[in-house]
Design brief:
3 domains, about 45% helix, mainly alpha, three-stranded antiparallel sheet, hpI Integrase, Chain A, about 350 residues
Length: about 350
Amino acid sequence: MPRRNQGPRLRWLAKRECFYIAWTERGRSRECSTGTADREQAESFFAEWMHRRGRRTGPRDPSAILVTDVLNDYAQQRGQKIEAPERIAYAMLALTDFFEGNTVADVTPQTCERYAEKRRRSPGTVRRELGVLRAAINYAHRSGSLTRPVAVELPERPAPRDRWLTRKEVAWLIRAACTPQARLYLPLFILIALYTGRRKEAILSLRWPQVNLEARTINFEVAGRKRTNKRRGIIPIPPRLLPHLWRARRRGTDLGYVLHIDGERIGDIKKGFAAACERAGIEGVTPHSLRHTCATWLMQKRTDPWQASGFLSMSMETLLRVYGHHHPDYQREAAENIGRRPQNVRVMA
């Protein structure tokens, strides 16, 4: 069995009484002398050697470039251009911890499987993190840093969650969010998420200029935002949400955020939301569950799928695949027709 490539590392060679840098390149062992027996000086030489190595131009074989270098380059050059850079940062911490000292050539289905076992997180989390590694490696290949791409094995896509709130649970949650321990913005967040079906980030970034109370519309799109599969769209304000927005508008500023703390944008809401769920005695719910609830309620009310998908800024295929079974008429015609006797057809001579 071939020896695992650990990437460049310092080694003490007793026969030469000197520290050497050892690494594997294109399947062959390589060495470079540091010229010193002092550990601190050797580490300084090693750091400078790695810096010079990182500045090499031209494509390199996957066995000659570290996973951490590929991740760092991806974060620096693409991190701020992506919709959720904080997710890349979280994923990189876990990926760096596991792949430290490994080259891109060490990324195999077996190492990806070991990564999933060590992380002990949900398949969805592991899939997103390894997806960042796949994107970083593909970017390195497209930008000319790698001579060839390396496949990253991802876990199977988990089944979509079917957890949604009943109207009674929503009442409990809003009541729990209106307690003195909760902030004023928490009940409004719940109502906006519930009645618009928008994701957490779209709601937290919403400003008052995007809300037209006279025309009764909300434009969740942000100027200059890169268009992704997570569309936001422009929707009419549901009648039950309108009075809550009017009251919130009187407390806000012309250009400020709809949800804010002393005028500043809210970073995240999941801790306050989780505390409200605990007070309400509701389990298995996150802020994204409110989007599931909105879509489920629309289907349960026999809303036309074309109207529902447009309102949610969701593809028709996703709506029917994930929420279609909540529609009262879901496959009803097929279920009724399967038991009907065939009608006798009279053939005219």
